[in-house]
Amino acid sequence: MKKLALHWKIIIGMVLGIIWALLSSSMGWSKFTIDWIDPFGTIFINLLKLIAVPLVLFSIIGGVANIGDPKSLGRMGGKTLGIYLITTILAISLGLVLVNLVKPGELINEDSRIDNRISYEIWANSEGHEIKDGINYLEDPAFFNRAQEITELTKKELQNASVKEKVDAVKNKKEVSPLKPLVDIIPSNFFDALTDNGSMLKIIFFAVFFGVCLLFIPAEKSMPVLKLVDGINEVFLKMVDIVMQAAPFFVFALLAGVVSKMAGNDIGKVVEIFKGLSWYSLTVLVGLITMIVAVYPAVLKLFVKKIPYKGFFKGMGPAQTLAFSTSSSAATLPVTMECVEQNLGVNKKVSSFVLPIGATVNMDGTSMYQAIAVVFLAQMHMIDLTIGQQVTVVLTATLASIGSAAVPSAGLVMLIIVLSSVGLNPAWIAIIFPVDRILDMFRTVVNVTGDATVCSIIADGENMLDYVEHDNPSETFDLDS
Ligand code: ASP
């Protein structure tokens, strides 16, 4: 009998997880699900992350050193960063076009928008921000009473501890030298960097530096090191194979946990959460889905003729479904690498260099969502962002997505920077927080698909792409392969 492809098994696991969560919340078993099933989801993410950090280290060292000469390395490095930047800007621009067309923030009822506007003015005054569009409800006698009530409410809102902590943490970061992000990439202690999952950029820096130095020492010295690095890489990839055998079960636990935490013992809550933010969520989803079904296929068709649209998605299925269920491109990285190498035929020399960097710096889905979120939040507070401000959004969303760690909800925290850059209240992340975890699943799929697309373009350009059509590509995860 033909074996069911892994991504189908994962999808079945996901669906069963959601069904279980809905059933358990209607039967009042949510606590059981959170106590006894959800931890397996955490175990799964931990296992994948455990593999991801050393895999990034060794695959970049191997990738850089195997390229062979510093000139090709420089060319490939430049191309990689350049194309990653172009796809990110493309995603943000598409997001901005969509949110300006749909105007989800204006579909909220007029009274609450006026209330929102008043609280924005209170906040802007307290922070000493200049209000650019000249409207001033606070000083309008018609709104005097409402303004007073809202002043009280706003004070309470600003005290919302969890949001405040996040905002303060990012603010503290911002108040240091503008070159701080650069300084942060250089680790002062390599072992410290290794122990922190958030310091992927430090590990990448070290790995590139180490790999480049390997290129410059005599072959009889570098060969044994390179062989060791390649061997270690193989061990980690085998670990991925083993963990992936249990992925459908783990994904069931993961989804059951996420949905149970949202719903508690009341399924209606999930629907309620989405109702208020439905237009916003829909705009984000339309943008993300357009990237997957139109933009990437078009880019592939233009630049990588060898890989047919269908073959690309069939090959990337396991990585995409895993990205959806884990909401983490870092946790998905080991599987992304296997899919790209074994199913799309990208040479390891390219994938081991391009993909780990992509998982960290290239987040098309995250940057698009940040752009949509900022404009949506402005619209619902009756603030018109000028073209200049929207250009600022393009710049800061690009930087914020580069700075976002490849873990769940990182994009939401970095949204604080984008909001602040155009003079909006960073505490507004609380407004979209309720739907963020679900949207995170979709944007992570886009992040991973974007990395794989760029990787195929680079591989094709370097003549290192050897695509062969597979009947059932995800069977590459067989233990005995
Ligand atoms: N979860 C995303 C990722 O890992 C980042 C984010 O947008 O929060 O790719």
Structure explained in plain terms:
It is a single chain. This protein has 481 residues and is mostly helical. It has one domain (6-477): Orthogonal Bundle (Proton glutamate symport protein), CATH 1.10.3860.10. 78% of the residues lie in helices and 0% in strands. It is built from 20 helices and no strands. The longest helix has 38 residues, at 30-67. The mean pLDDT is 84. Residues 327-329, 363, 366, 404, 406-411, 440, 443-444, 447 line the site of aspartic acid. The site of aspartic acid has 16 residues, from helix 19 and helix 20.
State the share of residues found in helices, binned by percent.
over 70%
Kindly, what is the distance between the CA atoms of the first and last residues, rounded to a whole number of angstroms? Answer: 19 Å
DSSP, total strands: 0
Structural class: mainly alpha
Poorly predicted spans:
none
Can you say what the CATH homologous superfamily is?
A: Sodium:dicarboxylate symporter
> Under CATH, the topology is which?
Proton glutamate symport protein
Q: SSE order, as H and E?
A: HHHHHHHHHHHHHHHHHHHH
Which cofactor or ligand species appear?
aspartic acid
Report the portion of residues in β strands: under 5%
* Biggest beta-sheet profile: none
CATH class: Mainly Alpha
Q: Would you kindly provide a brief summary of this structure?
A:
The chain is an all-alpha fold.
SSE blueprint and pairings:
Elements: H1 6-26, H2 30-67, H3 70-102, H4 110-127, H5 144-158, H6 161-174, H7 180-185, H8 190-195, H9 200-216, H10 219-245, H11 247-263, H12 268-276, H13 278-303, H14 309-326, H15 329-343, H16 348-361, H17 364-380, H18 387-403, H19 410-421, H20 429-461
